[in-house]
Design goal:
Radius of gyration: 21 Å
Number of helices: 14
Number of strands: 12
Low-confidence stretches: none
CATH architecture of the largest domain: 3-Layer(aba) Sandwich
Number of domains: 2
C-alpha cells in the first residue's frame, strides 16, 4: 500500500510552483519575455566568475576521486575549516570546523536542525509571514509547526502573540531574516527581545529552546539597512545557510549548519547531524561544489540588481496607492492587495500577464508576494502592465 499522506499532498501543491508552471505555459503561447513572472525566487544574476574559474581549474588539475568521490559524512574538513574561519572573521564568533556541518542547501540544513532538537509531538514556532514549505519541512518530521500571527505594521515579531503561544512543548523558534516573503530584516532590538524571552522561558520550562535561523538571504541587504547576525544574540542558535542566493547557485544545493560555539553541546550536535543523515538521505553534498564554494566564501554574485528592481517596484506601488512595508533585503516585496481576497486580486492580474502570488499560504491573507529576481528591463516593462491592471480593475482605489 502506498502512503496516503503523501498522496493527499498531491492535491495541495505549492501555489508558487503552480503559478510558475502557468507562467511557463503562457510563455509558450506569447513568448516568455511577455509574461511578467514574479512567482519563483530563482536567482537571476550570474555566478561570480571566480567560482566558474575555480571549477574549470579543478576539473583540469584535480583527480576524479577528489572531485567526484564521497566526502566525509560531516563534509570536507578543509571546507568546514574555511567556513568557520570566515564566520569568525565576519561575526566575531569563535567557530571552528567542529561547529560546521555541510548540507544540501538551506532545506537540507533545516532538515537536520529540526531533528536535532525535536521529538514527534514537540512544537516549533515561526512568525508570519513565512515560507510555506516550512509546513512540510517541520510537520513531516513528527514535530508540529505553529505560526505566530504577523505584525503587519512593520513585519517585525508580534511579541504579544508570541508570548501567548510559547509553551513547555516549544523546543525551537524558526526565524528567517532577511525574510521571505516580506523582505524585512529583523532589527537588533527585535533579536535582543527574542533572546530575552527565550532565555526566560527556557529557565521557566526547564529545557533549552533553540533558535533555528534560516539565512539564505543573509547577503542580500540594501543600502542603509543593518542586518545583525542572529547567532550573536542567543547562545542556542542553529544557523542554516545556503549559497543559493549569495552566489546564484540554487541548482547546486549547497549550504551548511553552523552551531553557535556557545551552545553547550555544539560539537556533539554537529556529529549528530552525521547520524541524522543516515535516516533522511541528505548526506555528502557534491565534493566538487564544496571545494569550489570554499574558494569564494567572501564573494557574492552582483546582487545590486535586486535593490534596483526593488526601488522601481516599490516606487510604482506607492504611486498606485498600495500599502507596502519597504523591503530591507532579499528579492521579494510584499504589498497588501487592493481587495480583501488576494487570490481574486492575483487571478485578475493574470489577464494582464502579471504572475503574482497570493499570500494566504504565507500566513498573511490579503497580501501578495512579488519575486523580482528578473531582468531590470523586464521589471520596467511590467510596470506598464501593473499600472494598466490597477487603473482598469480598481479605478476607485
Amino acid at each position: 500500500m502506498i502512503v496516503q499522506k503523501y498522496k493527499d499532498m498531491l492535491s495541495g501543491k505549492s501555489v508558487i510552483r503552480q503559478l510558475s508552471e502557468f507562467a511557463t505555459a503562457r510563455g509558450a503561447e506569447i513568448g516568455y519575455e511577455n509574461v511578467f513572472d514574479y512567482s519563483l525566487g530563482n536567482p537571476s544574476v550570474p555566478v561570480p566568475q571566480q567560482f566558474t574559474d575555480k571549477m574549470i581549474e579543478m576539473l583540469q588539475t584535480e583527480s576524479s576521486a577528489t572531485l567526484h568521490g564521497y566526502s566525509p559524512s560531516l563534509g570536507i574538513t578543509k571546507v568546514r575549516e574555511a567556513i568557520a574561519a570566515s564566520l569568525k572573521e565576519r561575526f566575531g564568533i569563535p567557530y571552528t570546523a567542529n561547529h560546521i556541518f555541510m548540507a544540501s542547501g538551506a532545506a537540507g540544513a533545516l532538515a537536520h536542525a529540526f531533528r536535532l532538537v525535536t521529538e514527534p509531538g514537540d512544537e516549533i514556532l515561526t512568525f508570519a509571514p513565512f515560507f510555506p514549505e516550512y509546513n512540510p519541512y517541520v510537520n513531516l518530521t513528527g514535530a508540529v509547526l505553529k505560526v505566530v500571527p504577523a505584525n503587519t505594521a512593520d513585519f517585525q515579531i508580534n511579541f504579544e502573540a508570541f508570548e501567548e503561544m510559547i509553551s513547555p512543548k516549544t523546543m525551537a523558534v524558526l526565524i528567517n531574516t532577511p525574510n521571505n516573503p516580506s523582505g524585512i530584516v529583523y532589527s537588533k532590538e527585535t533579536l535582543e527581545k527574542l533572546a530575552a524571552v527565550l532565555t526566560a522561558k527556557s529557565e521557566e520550562y526547564g529545557h533549552d529552546i533553540f533558535v533555528i535561523s534560516d539565512e539564505p538571504y543573509r547577503e542580500i541587504v540594501f543600502a542603509g539597512v543593518d542586518a545583525p547576525c542572529v547567532s550573536a544574540f542567543y547562545d542556542n542558535t542553529i544557523m542554516c545557510y545556503s549559497f543559493s542566493k549569495s552566489l546564484s547557485l540554487p541548482g547546486e544545493r549547497i549550504g551548511y549548519v553552523a552551531i553557535n560555539p556557545a551552545c553547550k553541546e555544539a560539537e556533539t550536535m554537529v556529529v549528530m547531524c552525521g547520524q541524522i543523515s543516515r535516516g533522511i538521505g541528505h548526506n555528502c553534498p557534491p565534493s566538487i561544489i564544496q571545494l569550489a564554494v570554499a574558494e569564494v566564501l567572501d564573494l557574492t554574485a552582483d546582487l545590486s540588481v535586486y535593490e534596483t528592481n526593488m526601488n522601481l517596484i516599490y516606487n510604482e506601488l506607492m504611486d498606485l496607492g498600495f500599502t507596502c512595508v519597504k523591503p530591507g533585503g532579499t528579492f521579494y516585496i510584499f504589498p497588501k492587495a487592493l481587495e480583501e481576497d488576494a487570490k481574486v486580486f492575483c487571478e485578475k492580474a493574470l489577464k494582464y500577464d502579471l504572475i503574482l502570488v497570493p499570500a494566504d499560504s504565507f500566513g498573511c491573507p490579503g497580501y501578495f508576494r512579488m519575486a523580482y529576481c528578473i531582468d531590470t528591463e523586464k521589471v520596467e516593462r511590467s510596470l506598464v502592465a501593473l499600472r494598466k491592471f490597477v487603473e482598469t480593475e480598481y479605478p476607485n482605489r
